[in-house]
Amino acid sequence: MLGLMQSQPLLISNLITFAERHHGDAQIVSRRVEGDVHRYTYRDAAQRSRQVARALDGLGLAFGDRVATLAWNGYRHFELYFGVSGSGRVLHTINPRLHPDQIAWIANHAQDEVLCFDLTFLPIVQAICGKANIRHYIALCDADKLPHDSGIAGLRSYEEWVGACDDRYDWPTLDENTASSMCYTSGTTGNPKAALYSHRSTLLHAYGAALPDAMGLSARDAVLPVVPMFHVNAWGIPYSAALTGAKLVFPGPGLDGKSVYEMLEAEQVTYAAGVPTVWQMLLTHMRPAGLRFSSLKRTVIGGSACPPAMISAFKDDYGVEVLHAWGMTEMSPLGTVCTLKNKHLALSEAEQMKIRLKQGRAVFGVDMKIVGDDGVELPWDGKTFGNLLVRGPWVLGQYFKAEGGDPLQGGWFPTGDVATIDADGYMQITDRSKDVIKSGGEWISSIDIENLAVAHPAVAMAACIGMPHPKWDERPIVLVVKKPGADVTREELLAFYQGKIAKWQIPDDVVFVDSIALGATGKILKTRLREQLKGYRLPGV
Ligand code: AMP
Questions:
Q1: Residue 188: is its pLDDT beyond 70?
Q2: Which atom of ligand 1 is the closest one to the Cα of 329?
Q3: What was the pLDDT predicted at 523?
Q4: 82-111: b (≥16 Cβ within 10 Å) or e
């Protein structure tokens, strides 16, 4: 017997229609590439999204055609999120930090028809336009800002293109499994592969992400996503914000500590989201000047492991709760968020902190397990490491164009992360499987070694990698960037590890460096570090 409730597809256009109707005057504020701050409402965004849909019709784009963006977080990008997907096309957000050759490759692989870009990225577009088979180039600017000598054939301004269109438009009733957007993985090895999201997966993810024990967004929040809209849809925040009616504050190109701080304060932001490196820049800006937050209450940190020192700094020095979260492009991206359970409230601060350091509990919609190399499930004891597998309605089933074959193992997606899960279901990432250090048959977590190093007051950044060892297979060393004006010796840092981890886990060496290479999504590029250290020999080997 079937249920007798209405059957309505879950569509991205529903989100913007809802936001317009129920939160029409909630604000969307954006720092623009032009340098000024733009301000409008969900009502305006909904109207302009419909104009985008019409403008795409005007280009003769069919359902399923790809529309790419190379853009910062801003209101025009937000309109494209809804106008492109809502009208049945596929929004392809490209990471501008990739090499232009890789961008051209991705655009051709995705078969992008249109590319909408912020003027910051004009040099990239000029570099790729001879190589990519894109038919229409749109600069996200006013008509009078359009460069006339760009060398890009048929270049148009977004305002002229969209502004010419009527805002009356009936969103199509699509099958909810229709593709809505796509995002290529960082591809540190081999060519990047794309996750292709659907309307259904995006809406379910938006619901899940908004839950109180997940991102916990509401109509009382002002949300600033520093995490880029070109990296897994800014963790779905544009969708979850429209679903809840939260005020949105877009930082545009201003991602340095000073610009982010000014935006947080000026717009009375209550909730922010970003990777640890961004928050490091913010704290570095605030500390020497003795600056405080007047409105920020919570910040979700993910993308790489959040160092304990950062969680404490936000909590103890600024009264801001850190929500440590984990996910990946293939998971739309949210998998877990770390929030306490009722039974933890009576624990001491120190005991609570031990839990907060973990990547957290699964959001309903994500199921997870850890398995050994033989595929056998491992216990949830908080100690046993295993390969982390996930499944759920917003988890990838297959890459775009079936690249890489069938990625699933018995219906589960292997994340490539190594983790523990405790009896309460809190997951803790110990490493990427390729970064874990295998020493004498035991595994050493590079994340643990890095977290301890950055807890030292003289250390700004640290990266731990395994080096070949004739007896132990591999031994850890730690690369360290010192804070400006601070000093620490190799011996002092190694002594700092004493008593904090087992003796055999303490690194064999410390290598001081000026900087540590980060990849396009802000993660430490360990492959690059290993290349840099070619010819390096462990002490005594
Ligand atoms: P991406 O698909 O580029 O977002 O990268 C996903 C990967 O980032 C995951 O598989 C993890 O290896 C890593 N990652 C994301 N969040 C965290 C976190 N909170 N702690 C540790 N690693 C993380």
A1: no
A2: 2
A3: 83
A4: bbbbbbbbbbbbbbbbbebebbbbbbebbe
Q: Give me ligand 1 centre to Cα 202, in Å.
A: 19
Query: Atom 1 (ligand 1): residue with closest C-alpha?
Result: 328
Query: Ligand 1 centre from 274 Cα, in Å?
Result: 12
Using CA positions, which residue lies closest to atom 5 of ligand 1?
Answer: 328
Statement: residue 511 has pLDDT above 90: yes
413-421 and 427-432 strand pairing:
antiparallel
- Does position 321 have pLDDT exceeding 70, yes or no? yes
What local confidence, expressed as pLDDT, does residue 91 receive? Answer: 98
User: What span, in angstroms and rounded, lies between the C-alpha atoms of 50 and 47?
Assistant: 5
DSSP assignments along 329-371, one per residue: GGGSSEEEE----GGGTTS-HHHHHHHHTS-BEEPTT-EEEEE
pLDDT of residue 304: 86
CA dist., res. 470 & res. 515, Å (int): 29
Spot the catalytic one: 120, 354, 443, 482: 443
Give this prediction's pTM.
0.90
At 187, is the pLDDT very low, low, confident or very high (cuts 50, 70, 90)?
A: low
Rg over alpha carbons for the chain, rounded to the nearest Å, is: 23
User: Which residues line ligand 1 at a C-beta cut-off of 6 Å?
Assistant: 185-186, 232, 302-305, 324-326, 328-329, 333, 359, 415-417, 429, 432, 521
Residue 438 falls in the annotated catalytic set: yes
Hey, what are 280's tokens? 């490091």
Pocket test for ligand 1, best of 182, 235, 368, 417 (most atoms within 8 A of CB): 417
Q: Give the distance between the most distant pair of CA atoms in the chain.
A: 74
Counting ligand 1 atoms within 8 A of each CB, the residue from 304, 388, 399, 445 with the most, and so the one to mutate, is 304
Examine the residue annotation and report whether 330 is marked as an active-site residue of this protein: yes
Q: Residue 428: which of 354, 372, 505 has the closest Cα?
A: 354
pLDDT in tens, 121-135: 999 999 999 999 999
For the chain, domains (ranges, CATH) are 12-421 (3.40.50.12780), 435-532 (3.30.300.30)
pLDDT of residue 189: 54
Instruction: Say what the pLDDT of residue 461 is.
Output: 93
Nearest of 161, 155, 113 to residue 133 by alpha carbon:
113
